[in-house]
Amino acid sequence: MASSSNTPRIVELAAQISASVAELQEHLSAQGVPSPTFDEDSPPFLPADVSHIRAQLLDATAELHEVLTEPLMLIFKFGAISNLISIDTICRFGILDMIPAGGKLSFLEIAEKTGLSKVEVRRLLRHAMAMRILKEPEPEMVAHTKVSKFMSIPYIQAWVNFEGRDTWPACTKVADAIEKWPASEEVNETGFCLANNGQSVFEALGADHTRAMRFAGGMKSLDHVPGCGEKAVLSAYDWASLGNAYIVSVGGSRGSAAMDLANNFEKTKFLIQDGAMMIAGAEVPQELKGRVDFMEHELFAPQTVQADVYFFRMAFRNWNDKNAVNILKAQIPALRPGAKLLIQDACMREPNVAPLCEERISRAIDMSLKTFFNTRERYLDDWKALLAAADERFVIEKVVQLEGSLLAMLEVQWDVSSVKA
């Protein structure tokens, strides 16, 4: 961003950072929240009500860092796949679990436990330490930081393993896939396919349970991406306005999001639909019986249940436009006039609208969708075109996107009056 005054931009940024840090600390002190550090016991997340200040600081500090970085070093920073080497290896050999909470372990002890040489351990861990993952509180001794402690969570480790073993090889083939299949939206014409002997991501995960569990860890890790976690569903929409609505959660997995809603909005009733394997063994808590139920139902099968609302939570992003249209069309047999579709998914914003720290995450996810599924995050115009292609009676009533959230809620009404005579 260019400076709008005669004050040099780096001076403006320094002043902005100083003011924002003071404002942030004032909020934290008022709430009794400790100031963030890299210490192992430092809270991994800041309170939600300071997210806007945090975003301002992240953008300003990133701009200051990057404008002071020489072009070659900036390219190296963003293109350095070497960062994944130490991260992947640390998780692969279970090193994080060896280091006691609040304690420390020597390079030699880690080498003996892993079967690696001390030289190998030291170079890998010091590389990770340069990224704030682990620390060396005294020579040759290793201890946790809050980053490595967070990375010790099993599903976060599963995600890291997926990034190293599955994402990394696929990413190196994306440009080849684009060259081979220009403008393709087919799931069997991706970088992942080229890296996996022609198998699509669905085929590969279906044939390898261990790999599928790594992928599941990646999906679970999205709980910590702003607005993507299941707990964020509660504040993503004015659910109370639906009154005693009957809501079908289409592709609702094992129903944790729907059950959270049912617990908080006692007038609503939910039917959770998903494939047989997904809902097998799923149980409804005693206190929700009579208000929540499960039903075996495939995403592309004609909808047979009449309801007030059909809730789709991140159900379209893994499907190209052709398949997404078919999912929408499948709902039509059951729709009554005035029925709503609530679609919680990304609604991409134009550049420089959201804070850059949020935009970078959105665009990184968009690249991942290209790599694995040949799909994309959709802009509002894309959603409008998708709904119109399915049926002109699908009308977007409003789009709700909370500050700091990467997901929006599209409220779509089945409006029979919108059909032109």
UniProtKB/TrEMBL annotation:
UniProt name for this protein: Putative sterigmatocystin 8-o-methyltransferase protein
Pfam families recorded: Dimerisation (PF08100), Methyltransf_2 (PF00891)
SUPFAM superfamilies: S-adenosyl-L-methionine-dependent methyltransferases, Winged helix' DNA-binding domain
Record's keyword terms, sorted: Methyltransferase, S-adenosyl-L-methionine, Transferase
Domain called O-methyltransferase C-terminal: residue spans: 196-390
GO BP annotation list: methylation
Keyword Cell cycle part of the UniProt annotation: no
One MF annotation (Gene Ontology) recorded for this entry: O-methyltransferase activity
InterPro entries: COMT-like (IPR016461), COMT_C (IPR001077), COMT_dimerisation (IPR012967), SAM-dependent_MTases_sf (IPR029063), WH-like_DNA-bd_sf (IPR036388), WH_DNA-bd_sf (IPR036390)
Organism: Eutypa lata (strain UCR-EL1) (Grapevine dieback disease fungus)
Annotated O-methyltransferase dimerisation domain residues: 88-150
Keyword Transmembrane helix in annotation: no
